[in-house]
Design goal:
The complex is a heterodimer of chains A (139) and B (141).
Chain A: E1 2-10, E2 19-20, E3 26-28, E4 47-71, E5 77-99, E6 109-118, E7 123-138
Antiparallel strand pairs in A: 1-7, 2-7, 3-6, 4-5, 4-6, 4-7
Chain B: E1 2-10, E2 19-20, E3 25-30, E4 49-58, E5 66-72, E6 77-84, E7 90-94, E8 98-99, E9 110-117, E10 124-138
Antiparallel strand pairs in B: 1-10, 2-10, 3-9, 4-7, 4-8, 4-10, 5-6, 5-9
Classes of the chains: A mainly beta (139), B mainly beta (141).
Chain lengths: 139, 141
């Protein structure tokens, strides 16, 4: 029996847009940068971890949610999970969560949607990283 | 048994923002030598599925600039992505699937920008690019 594992990272957007926190914007990963059809969703035991950092242009009180969205082949969008990033009188906060991707299939696309839920006055960006890990056992 | 890995390989996490696009020329931008990608042993795989994705960010809106982003090793271009600016400052792009199995694993890959229709004013851009590489592996008894 052999055991090994894979660990890899995906950055969906190297240069995320700057967003005003003064309105309840919902911003998607640009279409071209979404994670499209992939065999990775078929890997048994796959675990996906989202790591995000919210950066404000100036000290402010802002809350942003990051939805991890599955887009099915027919275009149906399903939120798999939501990470909340809240800043109170500050400029940066980080967050992470594991996401259940067992419902994903080969033909699915994945995108992130950021939404301002507690409004402020500063602008912000959200930098995110997806980490894939899968233990593999060969008998 | 099927095993798949998927990873994004960055060319440059902090690309130079001073690439001028107001003159027709090849190689107005090349990835820095030290940050180029050496795929090494993974090019021995029978199938190495990849996509070139990224964003071209301009310092001002430019409506008449055209050019190409090339994935190259300096000899062979493995993909050419044509771009045409619009009135926005950001162009996102995604290539068709590229099979990198014939890439020489010891020759670094990099991104190059060629300008074929020059901007009419002094505009600069920065190229954020990554290779998303999928490595399928099949183990049989």
């Amino acid at each position: 029996m052999s055991k090994f594992a894979i660990l890899s990272q995906i950055v969906l957007d190297n240069k995320p847009a700057t967003i005003s926190s003064a309105a309840a914007n919902a911003t998607d990963t640009p279409t071209e940068l979404q994670l499209s059809t992939s065999d990775i969703w078929e890997v048994s035991g796959l675990r996906l971890r989202l790591l995000s950092k919210l950066i404000l242009s100036a000290s402010d009180t802002v809350t942003v949610t990051v939805d991890v969205n599955r887009i099915a082949k027919d275009g149906t969008v399903t939120a798999l999970d939501t990470l909340t990033l809240a800043i109170t009188a500050g400029t940066e906060v980080t967050g992470e969560m594991f996401i259940d991707v067992s419902s994903m299939v080969f033909t699915d696309t994945l995108k992130l949607t950021t939404t301002t839920t507690v409004l402020g006055t500063a602008t912000y960006e959200v930098d995110s990283l997806l980490e894939f890990s899968a233990p593999i056992q060969v008998n | 048994m099927n095993i798949v890995t998927l990873s994004s390989l960055m060319f440059d996490p902090k690309p130079d923002a001073a690439t001028a696009v107001n003159a027709i020329a090849n190689d107005v931008y090349n990835s820095p030598l030290e940050l180029r990608l050496n795929l090494g042993q993974i090019t021995r795989m029978t199938y190495l599925d990849s996509e070139l994705v990224g964003s071209l960010i301009f310092d001002a809106a430019e409506s008449v600039c055209e050019g190409n982003i090339r994935l190259t090793d300096g000899v062979t271009d493995f993909h050419t992505e044509a771009f045409t600016t619009s009135t926005t400052t950001r162009l996102d792009f995604k290539s068709t699937k590229i099979n990198l199995r014939n890439v020489n694993g010891t020759t670094p890959l990099y991104l190059a920008i060629d300008i074929t229709v020059a901007a009419t004013v002094a505009v600069t851009c920065e190229l954020h690019g990554q290779l998303r590489v999928e490595m399928p592996l099949l183990i049989t008894d």
